[in-house]
Amino acid sequence: MTTINTNSALEGMYWDTEKKVADKNNGALTQSDFFALLTQQLAYQDPTKPVENDQMIAQMTNFTMADGITKLNDNFSSLAQSMSSNQALQASSLVGRSVLTQSEQLVFTGESLSRGQINLEQPADNMKVIITKPNGELVSTFNVDQPQLGKNEFAWDGTNQAGETVAAGLYNISVEVSARGKTENVPVQVYTPVSSVSMGNNGNGITLNLLGIGAVKLADVLEVSYG
């Protein structure tokens, strides 16, 4: 009895997926495809009912518009990449400088004053800055003289209540404002040195890595300082 090996006979009947040509357009129709469709449409049209001139012009216009939109999208993509590169270059120039952001943490470098500001929207009789360690231990308190509406700047020299210079590091900061016998906490903005810049992977945008505090969005920066 003769045995036929069907496997070898069928080998050539299967598609070789490894040799398949990649679709560079990801299945999208190009202008050439549109014109090919138009040619086929004209070739197979009913001779008794030919395509009207205005219909052909309308189709040609649609094809041209589709091609124009594709090119416009490509141009916008290139523009977005260019803007991102330019923004990254500008952001890199901030390394070594200090930026103002809203924060509940204050960095003392041990080499310069720690600065910040409080924006008042209502009149206040007294404004007190409170600085504590991360464990909640009180380090220093001081008043901001003559608080006024709008920007009120302050600076901390890195000394504690006894006048001793504390270690460089990260401290918590809060601000209490008193008006007509009522006391409340208000947001505080601090200057922090920029240690590095992240170019923004996964669509997160450009972020600044602040010394001790961590990453903040470039859009959250309120002001830039040399010191």
TrEMBL record:
Keyword Ligase belongs to the record: no
Residue span(s) of domain FlgD Tudor-like: 86-221
Pfam family, one: FlgD_ig
InterPro entries linked: FlgD (IPR005648), FlgD/Vpr_Ig-like (IPR025965), FLgD_Tudor (IPR025963)
Keyword Ribosomal protein carried by entry: no
Source species, domain of life: Bacteria
Keywords: Bacterial flagellum biogenesis, Cell projection, Cilium, Flagellum
Domain FlgD/Vpr Ig-like: 105-178
Function: Required for flagellar hook formation. May act as a scaffolding protein.
Family designation: Belongs to the FlgD family.
Protein name, as recorded: Basal-body rod modification protein FlgD
Source species: Alishewanella maricola
